[in-house]
């Protein structure tokens, strides 16, 4: 389900970038939030115990995506895709997970859709938040 976020898409891309940086700086200090070398932030909501995907694998997930203001822009159940075909933040983050795990990803703009944004729903330079459950690694 895609939700139009007109107020955000009409905003200033430079302000969106600054807001994302400020959000991620504050978020990195919160308990349980881990930060990778690339800048991806994640919080483990539920540990998994199954297979762990590699970048060359395909996965099946349940997810919910939102902007940092809490506006949901997408969600899905039982969605399958190759890790090589999604934004870098997902490719990196899903490789940290095991089947059955639920993580919250806090993705900087440069690991998401960057300066172009996406489909008039995600503004340019937007940091994103995703709740992701790794249902299955498809090898």
Short précis:
The protein has three helices and six strands; from the N terminus they run ααββββαββ. The chain is an alpha+beta fold and 139 residues long. Strands 1-2-5-6-3-4 form a six-stranded antiparallel sheet.
Characterization of the model:
The structure is a single chain. With 139 residues, this protein is of the alpha+beta class. It has a single domain (6-138), classed as Chitinase A, domain 3. It has helices spanning 6-9, 13-27, 88-94; strands at residues 33-35, 41-46, 58-67, 72-82, 102-107, 128-138. A six-stranded antiparallel beta sheet has the order 1-2-5-6-3-4. A hairpin with a 4-residue loop joins strand 3 and strand 4. It is globular, with a radius of gyration of 14 Å. Mean pLDDT is 92; it is low at 1-9.
Q: Helices, strands, pairings?
A:
Elements: H1 6-9, H2 13-27, E1 33-35, E2 41-46, E3 58-67, E4 72-82, H3 88-94, E5 102-107, E6 128-138
Antiparallel strand pairs: 1-2, 2-5, 3-4, 3-6, 5-6
Q: Estimate the strand proportion.
A: 25-35%
The strand count comes to: 6
User: Quick one: overall form?
Assistant: globular
Q: Could you list the spans in which at least 5 consecutive residues all have pLDDT below 50?
A: 1-9
Helix content: 10-25%
Largest sheet: 6 strands, antiparallel
Number of helices: 3
| Rg calc | 14 Å
In the CATH classification, which architecture applies?
Roll
Name the helix and strand elements from N-terminus to C-terminus, one letter apiece: HHEEEEHEE
Mean pLDDT across every amino acid position: 92
- Class, according to the CATH hierarchy? Alpha Beta
Distance between the termini: 27 Å
Number of domains: 1
Structural class: alpha+beta
CATH fold-level assignment = Chitinase A, domain 3
Physical arrangement of strands within the biggest beta sheet: 1-2-5-6-3-4
């Amino acid at each position: 389900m895609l939700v139009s976020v007109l107020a955000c898409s009409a905003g200033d891309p430079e302000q969106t970038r600054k807001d994302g940086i400020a959000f991620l700086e504050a978020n990195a200090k919160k308990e349980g939030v881990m930060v990778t070398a690339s800048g991806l932030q994640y919080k483990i909501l539920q540990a998994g115990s199954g297979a762990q995907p590699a970048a060359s694998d395909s996965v099946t997930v349940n997810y919910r995506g939102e902007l940092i203001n809490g506006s949901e822009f997408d969600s899905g159940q039982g969605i399958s895709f190759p890790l090589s075909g999604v934004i870098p933040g997902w490719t990196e983050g899903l490789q940290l997970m095991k089947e059955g795990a639920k993580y919250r990803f806090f993705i900087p703009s440069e690991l998401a859709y960057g300066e172009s944004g996406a489909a008039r729903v995600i503004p340019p330079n937007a940091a994103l938040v995703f709740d992701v459950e790794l249902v299955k690694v498809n090898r």
